[in-house]
Amino acid sequence: MKAVILAGGRGTRLGHLAKKIPKPMVKVGGVPLLEHQIRLLKRYGIKQITLITGYLSKVIEDYFKDGTEFGVRINCFREAKPLGTTGGIKQLADELTTDFIVLYGDVMINMDIEKLLKFHRAKGGKCTLVLHPNDHPYDSDLVRTDEEQRIIQFHSKPHADGKYLRNLVSAGVYVLSPTIMKCIKKGVKADFGRDIFPKIVSTERLYGYNTPEYIKDIGTPDRFNQVNTDCLSGKIERLNNKNKRPAIFLDRDGVINEKVGLLYKIDDFKLLGRAAEAIRKINSSDFLAIVVTNQSVVARNLCSISRLEKIHNKMDTLLGKEGAKLDAVYYCPHHPDSGYPEENPQYKIQCSCRKPNIEMIRKAQKQFNIDINNSFLIGDSLRDILCGRNAGLTTIGLMAGGCCWDENIEPDYLFADLYEAVDFIVNSCCRHAAV
Question: Residue 92, Cα to own-chain centre: how many angstroms?
């Protein structure tokens, strides 16, 4: 496997931080960002690396030379003129004859590349894009995937008011087949995300690899400062999927949004006060924020899967407007009581995912390598508390729900609302507090 790093950026928005150096050479934790990327690639056995340079190329060339000092082989390819994210790669077509990985040189990355490559090979597509939710989806290009993780649509910013989209953003890491070269015109300035992928998504197999690992650009002073802080605290390394990570599992209705009985109309979904603030607090910690929710509205035939997912898109959108994000949403559409004429019989079944069963927890545990022993479930019903207990989680009930305990079952803790519960977890209970 070869790697290509797009390292020609100017860093105009970084001001004095990148005044005399190319943006990828800005130091994070005292080390150039580009060096962090190269050392990550080496860690996963990727040692043939091409740096596509442009602005102040000599700074990069003089620092890395041929890569010997870093235990890799580095070739610097200097673009005569900027041709976007695709032009330099097209000119390297004769060298990129097998699948290769592409990184953007202004993005701090620490992820399990071995797992990414395993996913790419299993899918066998033309391209795998690394995806993740972020805290500013409103000004990001968003991606839609199907249940097989195949990308089926791109939504470029700006997004129309009132349009609810899933918070799933291309992170600037790709694994590409060399057959992508036929989609790129030589000598023409173009961008993968804007010009190439949207044009081929309907005819080629593009897949999305969704991960909550650390992938953050340093394009503004605020983002750079956050990345630098995370590096110095060790957070960037801790979030690699090789390491177990704790999670806060959240019920939906009555925890994140107002409870309205059977919620099946998009207009009825409204965030509870301080819910977004609570989820922002989870996001700033080492915890994952994962929703696990029973949604029998599908089995009752009040709501289709498509509409349920649009309700969840609204949840993503409203949270994103307040700088909060969910790492994943799992839902159970089933209900065990059948025999009603208006029901959807496909979903009126006994299942292993409906809480208090724990299949949703187990799926999340497998996908995200979750440390169950140090994870929590916050809910407002007895089913939530039983689910958490069955899965080995510490349980927290919300008193507003009023029905998350009885004479036999009690949660480990009780709080007034989601914010108080999260504040307790992050600031009082846990080793890695918010940074």
Answer: 30
Residue identified by tokens 């019903």 is 381
- Report yes or no on 238 lying in a domain: no
Active site residues: 251, 253
Query: C-alpha distances in angstroms, 276 versus 267, 342, 348, 418, 422?
Result: 18, 36, 33, 9, 11
Q: Which residues pair with 190 in a beta bridge?
A: 84
For the domain that residue 196 is a member of, what is the CATH number?
3.90.550.10
Which DSSP helix (H) or strand (E) runs through 221? Answer: helix 221-233
Non-local (6+) Cβ contacts of 102 within 8 A are: 3, 4, 5, 6, 89, 173, 174, 175, 176, 192
Question: Is 291 within 8 Å of 256 (Cβ atoms)?
Answer: yes
Q: Please tell me whether residues 279 and 362 are part of one structural domain.
A: yes
Q: Sheet with 376-379: list strands edge to edge.
A: 328-332, 288-294, 247-250, 376-379, 394-398, 413-415
404 has a pLDDT exceeding 80: no
Query: Which pair of structure tokens corresponds to residue 161?
Result: 């008011």
Q: How far apart are the C-alpha atoms of 330 and 350, rounded to whole Å?
A: 17
Q: Report percent pLDDT > 90 for the chain.
A: 83
Determine how many CB atoms are found less than 10 A away from the CB of residue 417: 20
Expressed as residue numbers, the domain containing 120 is 2-227
Q: List, for residues 287-311, the tens digit of each pLDDT value.
A: 999 999 999 999 999 999 999 999 9
Question: pTM score > 0.90 for this model?
Answer: yes
